Amino acid sequence: MRRYLTVAILLAAARSTAAQSVRVTVVEGTNRAPVVGAIVSLIDSAGIIARRGLSDDRGRVSLRAAKGGRYHVRADRIGFRGLDSGPVVVPDTGTINLAIVMPDEPVVLAEISVTSESRCVNDPGTAAGTASLWTEIRKALDATAIAKGAGLSFTMALWRRELNADLKLKFEQTDTVETSVPRPFFAADPVALVTQGYVVPGEKGSTYFGPDEATLLSPGFLATHCFHLNRRVIAGRSQLGLRFEPVAGRKLPDIAGTMWVDTDSRALSEVDYRYRNVGPEERLGGTATGRVEFMALPEGWWVVSRWNIRMPHLQEVRIVSRAIEGETIERRRMVRGYFEDGGALVQVKGPPRGYASITGRLQTGDESVRPLVGRPADPHRSSSSGERHGHACINTACSATLPSAPIRNSSDSR
């Protein structure tokens, strides 16, 4: 059943402009306090979202329509039930002021039952067991997508690491990047991920692609994965997870993982995943993994706060055996270690919500927190052994953080 709300509508004086827009103020139901970070959508008569925005620290957002007509406004808030305004007529000229009072009805995720026999379903939005959890995850992904198109500027800390087979740090290169582009990294085309997979082989190795919010929301991702529930306690916090894995019969390189939601706040925390069907790396015991962490800023923006991809580094070795009959030489591939590429947001800035500082330091491996080292990242830098270091495409991050061609995860022939 669609939920409607009695709203106050005023036609503002806007004779000097031809714009047609809806200026929405979202407040809480109990104390009428502004709702920060509400996802407000302007939906046309065909049910298509014409505009979306996030409410600011005063609960306000302005949505401009392409033309006048009959619309309705949908307001969603992470952790609480959403609400529909009912029909709103937007004139050809002028501004409609709309006040929305959100219900104080929280979404209760603790009642979701998680069992080891949970069936893997193909559509998380319609299955009874996964629908409410997917709804909260989708809100956070939608809010992240809106924030990326809001003209924010970012300061990012980037790293490239080489680890040994025991995941101990051997080499690290760090850099800081400031950018005013609308997004701190570029997403791979979700359609291409469906048709070519998440690992693309090349002349010098393979390029790994990781998911961002556009990928996770795409019809292709939902069509090529099935979903079921998971649960964990981490650092004393209870979390529910929406686990995903490739559908049966899919042979292309893909990802399987979990989207984790804090039970108390009902907010998306992180997505961790492993690569599947990646060939010799997987057969030799080297597991390629990745993680994307999300954060809500006080100003209402949702951002990807941290991300990484870790790739196995294969090496071909010669094994010499000597016997009475003579010497035999066998060539064998083995996992020598791992390459890891990642990044973390340090600062986010953008009008009209001012400046937000996330963190000024980053964690390096198992070492203590230390200041960033602002050395420029050389995409062709080699270690003392002359080996090239691998590079991943974190949401195709190589396109944004390194202007040159992506470096591949190489398997050296000795």
Provide structural commentary.
With 414 residues, the protein is mainly β. The protein is 11% helix and 47% strand. The protein contains six helices and 23 strands. The protein has helices at 131-148, 190-196, 213-217, 219-223, 280-283, 397-401, and strands at 8-12, 20-28, 39-44, 49-54, 60-65, 69-77, 80-90, 94-102, 153-164, 169-179, 199-202, 205-208, 225-234, 237-246, 254-262, 268-276, 289-296, 302-323, 326-349, 355-357, 361-362, 370-371, 412-413. The strands form five sheets. Strands 9, 10, 13, 14, 15, 16, 17, 18, 19, 20 and 23 form an eleven-stranded mixed beta sheet that branches. The chain has a four-stranded mixed beta sheet with strand order 1-8-2-5, with no helix packed on it. The longest helix has 18 residues, at 131-148. 36% of the residues are buried.
